[in-house]
Amino acid sequence: MSDTRERILEAARNAFSEKGFDGVSVEEIAQRAGVRKALIYYYFPSKEILFEEIWNNALEELEKHIFREIENENYYVKKIKRFLKAYIDFVTSRKILSKVIERERPAVLNTSTEESETTWSRLKERYDVFVDKVAKLIEEGKQNQIVHPDVDSKAAAKLIAQVMSGSSATEAIQALILRGLMKES
Amino acid sequence: MSDTRERILEAARNAFSEKGFDGVSVEEIAQRAGVRKALIYYYFPSKEILFEEIWNNALEELEKHIFREIENENYYVKKIKRFLKAYIDFVTSRKILSKVIERERPAVLNTSTEESETTWSRLKERYDVFVDKVAKLIEEGKQNQIVHPDVDSKAAAKLIAQVMSGSSATEAIQALILRGLMKES
DNA sequence: TCCTTTACTGACTGGTCGGTCAAATTATGA
DNA sequence: TCATAATTTGACCGACCAGTCAGTAAAGGA
What is the distance in angstroms between the Cα of A39 and the nearest Cα belonging to chain B? Predict the structure, then answer.
């Protein structure tokens, strides 16, 4: 029920989206939240764990937004078009969450999965789960003969997930990827 | 003809590509280069300026690699195919440079161009120059009726420049983007 | 009322950060 | 040879870092 906890998360999201994990101090998050630094450690055991919650939450929101939109669509041409549209919608309307993901993705993906149970390896695994879900959707499109047979589902999913591009012309990107994906337009 | 200077640059490149600008200390760069920290400040006025040299050099190498490959090709279908191939070549063969760009791009692009003469605004301007060159190439492809008329050149250039993807399946990405770009395959 | 739990704070720690500087070392060339 | 310049070093600085902790304040329930 803690409103304070939410304020801290919100402040941290904004800070991380602007400056990245290493570029933000816990003190700065505290000031943005209007709270003393020690209080952050009352709600979160470490800066890393705080970031982990934000990261997981961002991906959860993204997945919810996308898959809620396409679950009742069984015609695969529409399904994939809607998927891309929902994805672009998210990127343009939930800019802070998108920026958090965009900003820290290189660091997260650079983590070796072998590192047992570090925070960063967990973040990577979570991201991989998301990419796999997108890959599965594209793969289904291929099996339904909608997606071009030469498309590598996993590679295409990675490409799409990479497009968190700051601001402009995301619809144009959507159209380009769609044309690259489909058998014919 | 200082060999030491090169050693520092090389060590810094490796460090920045693995951990990002904020994740690397000058002390760590010094140790990797087998040099005392103070010596780095003999060759470079600041950590930021050191990074600026690496960033600019990476983009210069990338541009050289790409445009050397396509300058003598006037048939635009081949020109754009060769361009994509050269780009993928660079990303797979010059991994450290690619990683430096990939890792710090979100931070660089997040900089407002208005910030007069900060290091980061200069890095952004340099990156924008590169994207503009790619956009110009695609635009020419459009005018030669090779690239699909609906393609937004600037947006497509941004998308391509974003693909520094760690490792795998870059050829598959190349094929997908090519299909999205071209009028017909 | 008093007591337990929850929320919050200030002051602090050990360590690291980017950066400086006087002095030492090594090369240069007259 | 000797002076001058280029290169390299260790010792140091103030600022800041993530994280700790004893203790205060505020609720809430009996």
Answer: 25
Q: Which domains can be identified in chain B, with CATH numbers? A: 1-44 (1.10.10.60), 52-181 (1.10.357.10)
**What is d(CA B96, CA B110) in angstroms, rounded to the nearest whole number?**
22
3-state DSSP assignment of residue B10? helix
Name the residue among A122, A147, A159 with its Cα closest to residue B168.
A159
The number of helix segments (H) and strand segments (E) in chain A equals 9, 0
- pLDDT (tens digit, 9 = 90+) per residue, A39-90? 999 999 999 999 999 999 999 999 999 999 899 999 999 999 999 999 999 9
User: What is the full DSSP assignment across A24-59?
Assistant: --HHHHHHHHTS-HHHHHHH-S-HHHHHHHHHHHHH
Which residue from A minimizes the CA distance to B106? A103
Chain A residues near residue B97 by CB distance under 8 angstroms: none
Q: Which nucleotide is nearest to A41 (CA to C1')?
A: D19
Q: Are A62 and A16 in contact (CB under 8 A)?
A: no
CA distances from B34 to A158, B5, B21, B39, B42 (A): 38, 12, 20, 10, 15
Which pLDDT score is estimated for A5?
Answer: 97
Q: Is the pLDDT of residue B178 over 90?
A: no
B109 CB within 8 Å of a chain A CB: yes
pLDDT in tens, B33-80: 999 999 999 999 999 999 999 999 999 999 999 999 899 999 999 999
Collapse the DSSP code of B182 into the 3-class scheme (helix H, G, I; strand E, B; otherwise coil) and give the result. strand
Nucleotides of D under 7 A from a protein CB: 7-11, 16-22
**Chain A residues lying within 8 Å of B179, measured CB to CB:** 148, 179-180
